[in-house]
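dumping this here before i forget
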Amino acid sequence: MPEPEQDSAVSAAIEGELKLLDPEVRCSPERIDALLHPDFFEFGASGKVWDRAAIIDALTEEVASAAPAATVSGMKAVEIAPGTVHLTFDTDHNGRRAHRSSLWRHTEQGWRLYFHQGTLFTPAAD
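structure:
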């Protein structure tokens, strides 16, 4: 059975990830900034490597263009070490599907996204 601290860590990371997917959060550079670790980086589904400043700019521009929110499925989380949670999940954004992986780290400012990776995929036909 998971320890209460582990449950709390996992819940905090999931909450943070879902906030980052929320269009209301994505339109605010300040709210995004509060969720990203100072050393954040991402390997995007496009193949581009993003740093913190570039992803904040890209996310706020995306929302400004009225892009709809992505749907999330298959969210799984595990605390891999004290203060570090690994999340995996899938997103569907207007038919563009990606497997996603995030590492969340606990800091003095709270839980912050340290690393993210997206990989595009095509669902297998049934």
